[in-house]
Amino acid sequence: MTENPIATAVAPGYVFDGPALELGGLMTDAETLTDVRIKIPIGMLNRHGLVAGATGTGKTKTLQLIAEQLSANGVPVFAADMKGDLSGLATPGTPSEKLSARTASVGQQWTPASFPVQYFALGANGSGVPVRVSVETFGATLLARVLELNDTQESSLGLVFHYAKSAGLRLVDLGDLRAVLTYLTSAEGKADLAGLGGLSSATVGVILRELIAFADQGADAFFGQPEFDAAEFLVVEPDGRGRISLLELPNVADKPVVFSTFLMWLLADLQRTLPEVGDLDKPKLVFFFDEAHLLFDGATKDFLDTIAQTVRLIRSKGVGVFFISQSPTDIHEDVLAQLGSRIQHQLRANTPNDAKALKQTVNTYPTSSYADLGQVIQTLGIGEAIVTVMNERGAPTPVAWTRLRAPESLMGATDPATIAAAVKGSPLFATYGVAVDPADSAADTLGARTAATRAAAQEAAEAEAEAKAAAKQAKADQAASKKAHHAEEPHSPADSAMDIATKLAKNKQVQREAIKAGRSLLKKLFK
Ligand SMILES: Nc1ncnc2c1ncn2[C@@H]1O[C@H](COP(=O)(O)OP(=O)(O)OP(=O)(O)O)[C@@H](O)[C@H]1O
Ligand SMILES: [Mg+2]
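Above are the sequence and the adenosine-5'-triphosphate SMILES. Below is the predicted complex in structure-token form.
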């Protein structure tokens, strides 16, 4: 059966010892499908991957069928559901003639199936358990990214975070950061700002303006507490299947930088908090990062470094990451070089830029058995892809033109009412459903300080006024008594002079004490 030279060359590359996910059948040309099965070893999924292709060529369905098989093999999955169509994982698929033709051709025993899905949303404005993060955990680098700050502003924001931390000012929500920035640009905060060195009040002002604009877009909803614990994604259900956590994102499609940065935070959080495990038989989690080009567009060097480093380090934490984008050239080379499995759907070459991207894509493949790989990539059918994965020895498998299997769950969105009911009924909703505002965050602390400062200033002013009034009164009393003395019996002028001097000195003393007390109160407050 495998007489074809391409099949002969490719088939041995896809024989694995351990369990593997089945992607589909090997094609030798547009007409000929062989019985060679193209697979990815489950143990190599922490070597990351890429799913690329022009719009409508089958990327999401590929992601869906991989997620299904991972779940069935007890591997939890996280995916960003950009268009809502991945929610179909929770509903059994509907058979059709077209589907049967595909499944039969790739030797798939297709039975409709649903999978254990948990829905999440960014903040409270979506159909899912709200995912929130405190501003201080999110960190200056990622926040600078969502605020679209330049390098200088980014490092200034870093100083502000550092200041807040050392001053014991907790940055929980955007209001807290706003309070700190406002304070630093105020008369009271001037000294602290100067103490920070290298931070101009103009830059702080710019950051403050960006922050206000950002909050006005509704970003407030994503920041705060209870803070989400990304370990919630690492769940194997009682029936042994891996949980599929879907971050439902249709509502933030108009804020691409925000959601891509949030995904990056989730990944960085997993990398930071999970223990080192080395290479496991199967990953603890596979993380699908959709619309990945948004992550790299206009990224600062710091941010790019963060991505590349996170992707590098997360491998030994047992997490595999798949990036999904239109073209591999969308992915920064430092990250692309780390992606062991590649599933390339059709690319078009309509513009000179497309043609360049296609050429670059072809150049990133190991030698292939196909005469003209560039031509093949342009003529791939929908639901077909050029595949190469990392074998169990860590070497790339031969390039395989693959007809992909069909997902067994619904290719389309699950009914919104079903999603809403699942969310409300989820135990996670009890934990994360309602936002809480801790009383000791920066806005409250600074608010209380400002209130106390005002009270102290007023007290000092009142004391001063009282002291002045008392001095005036003493003077008047003295003048009156002098008059009286003159009128009645003569008094020793030395006596009355002493009297006045003592009284005046006393009043001055009160005045000084009052001012001193006010000052020390102010100092204490702004320590
Ligand atoms: N493996 C597959 N099995 C069955 N049908 C498929 C498969 N892949 C793609 N299709 C068909 O192609 C359509 C488009 O696929 P899909 O939604 O995955 O494309 P996409 O690349 O994610 O598009 P976009 O860039 O617009 O998100 C599907 O609705 C489905 O009809
Ligand atoms: Mg898609």
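The chain has 19 helices and twelve strands.
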